[in-house]
């Protein structure tokens, strides 16, 4: 995929994801926090199941799960934690605060993962511009999450 298109697509999806915590929080008022997290991730699973079967014509490739390491199966768990925590914290931080804090956490940890070259990633150093960018994101997160409704 072209780099510019990848950036635009990711920004677009990031914009859509901004809706997830407040939508799930509203649902949580009807079915509880855990119920909303379950429904949200359950719908995701169903959509992906239909998409997978439609594109692959069955489940044959999933036999490769036998060869997967345990930690390669934790993505769904991590997603469930993200959905659950964001749906609780959106009531305190607002949608912007949740997204800012999530992105700050993602950036800091992902930069450390890049630096270490773990999980098959190419090693990318912590250059001065990258460190400044992370610092600015943390400052921005602190500013966005300030009380003052």
TrEMBL record:
Keyword terms of this UniProt record: Membrane, Transmembrane, Transmembrane helix
Q: Where are the transmembrane segments?
A: 34-55, 76-104, 124-144
Question: Pfam families, per this entry?
Answer: DMT_YdcZ (PF04657)
The record, for InterPro entries, names:
YdcZ
Q: Give the domain of life.
A: Bacteria
Asked if the Swiss-Prot or TrEMBL record annotates the protein with the keyword Chloroplast, the reply is: no
Cellular component terms (Gene Ontology): plasma membrane
State what protein this is by name: DMT family transporter
């Amino acid at each position: 995929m072209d780099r510019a298109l990848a950036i635009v697509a990711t920004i677009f999806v990031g914009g859509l994801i901004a809706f997830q915590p407040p939508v799930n929080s509203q649902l949580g008022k009807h079915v509880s926090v855990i119920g909303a997290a379950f429904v949200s991730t359950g719908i995701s699973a169903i959509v992906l199941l239909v998409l997978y079967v439609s594109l692959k014509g069955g489940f044959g490739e999933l036999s490769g799960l036998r060869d997967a390491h345990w930690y390669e199966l934790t993505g769904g768990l991590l997603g469930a934690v993200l959905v659950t925590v964001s749906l609780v914290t959106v009531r305190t931080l607002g949608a912007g605060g949740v997204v800012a804090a999530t992105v700050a956490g993602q950036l800091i940890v992902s930069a450390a993962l890049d630096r270490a070259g773990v999980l098959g990633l190419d090693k990318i150093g912590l250059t001065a511009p990258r460190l400044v960018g992370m610092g600015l994101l943390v400052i921005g997160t602190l500013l966005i999450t300030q009380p003052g409704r």
